[in-house]
Amino acid sequence: MKQWAAKPEGPVEAVQTNWTIVPANDNANPEDIANTHVERRSAVRPTLSEIFRESAKVDCRRVPVADVSKAKGEHDFELYPIARDVEYGIAKDDKGREHKVVVRIGRLRFSDGTQTEKGFARGIDGKMIMKDLEMPVGAMLRTEDQQERMLGGNGAGGAYVEQSNLYFAQMLGAIEPRYVKGTERRQGRSYSADETRTMLADAYANTPVLPPVKRYRKGLPCGSQRVAESFLGMQKGKKGESGSVAWQDVSTHIVNREVWEATIAMLSDADTNVLDGALTARSLADLGDGSHRRTRERQGRRKLHAANDNLVAALKKSAA
Q1: Which of the pair, 211 or 158, is modelled with greater confidence?
Q2: Which helix (H) or strand (E) holds 21?
Q3: Which residue of 36, 64, 192, 240 has the lowest C-beta tally within 10 Å?
Q4: For residue 240, how far is the Cα from the chain centroid?
Q5: What pLDDT is recorded for position 18?
Q6: pLDDT tens-place string over residues 228-280
Q7: Burial 157-168 (b: 16+ CB within 10 A, else e)
Q8: Within 10 Å of residue 227's Cβ, how many Cβ atoms?
């Protein structure tokens, strides 16, 4: 029955795991984890340098922080913007009272409690959904935290990247790869495929003698410092997901399907109906045909045993 319930049907799924190889405790030797790092680098916008640059455009005064546990003169201070490139707004608290709040410092925008931004939250079913989230008073608006680029494991830099790039060049018979920084995209009209063909035909017609064709050696993508990033099958996703399904998984899945199809062909329609019904039946009585419950239970038990034995025999025969 377990074999019947887990039919090898549907798309091929790669083996996945969300286990981590790092112990979830603080007893690890600091020297063992000193050189470990994450596999992704996040780009937080605005950056700290941008925040410092915009903060320098305002004049501030020191405001003591209320703390009854400290004596006079021992309180901590906060900087409150008072002049130059600053803008204020009005925010209301839970009791409806209005308060003066900062809503802009330079190019940095802050919430007055009425703004919303797109974000993720858990829905009723516990899954993550995108919704409009209310921004609390003082929250910085238009911030982003996105993955900037993939990182390798320990030592994945410098000579390691160079050796990896040379490996791909030798394997594919291409020239040594080089990294070329991207330039700004030219602004202008975009042409369709037909317009491009027409323009190319006109250029050929206006050129009596075409220049000699120079053929270059095969090359590799130059938009990234690591050539391996151009091959999706070598990328590692979140929670142990791989970029593509391994050929071993595909081959095994194909063989399992062929064996299963041969097994199904050996079973009778009666056995197939009993096995399908057993997946949704509430009890053995649902598989019987009699009128009395005990009679239907006995019939259902005999039918299920017979169908299961036939399935095991067919599996052994088709897999031999």
Answers
A1: 211
A2: none
A3: 192
A4: 11
A5: 46
A6: 878 776 665 555 555 555 666 677 777 788 888 888 888 888 888 888 888 88
A7: eeeebeebbeeb
A8: 22
Task: Tell whether the torsion through CA atoms of 187, 190, 195 and 197 is positive or negative.
Answer: positive
pTM, 2 dp: 0.39
Query: What phi, psi does 85 have (nearest 5°)?
Result: -85, 70
Question: Taking Cα atoms as reference points, which of 258, 317, 288, 308 lies closest to residue 2?
Answer: 308
Q: Which residues pair with 79 in a beta bridge?
A: 62
Six-digit token string for 264: 């199904």
End-to-end CA distance of the chain: 20
CA-closest candidate to residue 92, choices 101, 103, 83, 102: 101
pLDDT tens for 160-184 read 788 888 888 888 888 888 888 877 7
**3-class state of residue 42 by DSSP:** strand
Q: How far apart are CA 260 and CA 314, in angstroms?
A: 9
Got the DSSP string for 208-270? Answer: SSPPPP-PPPP----SSS-GGGG-GGG-B-GGG-BSS--HHHHHHHHHHHHHHHHHHHHS-HH
The CA-CA-CA angle for residues 291, 296, 297, to 5°, reads 150
CA distance 179 to 167: 16
Taking the C-alpha atoms of residue 81 and residue 62, their distance in angstroms, rounded to an integer, is: 9
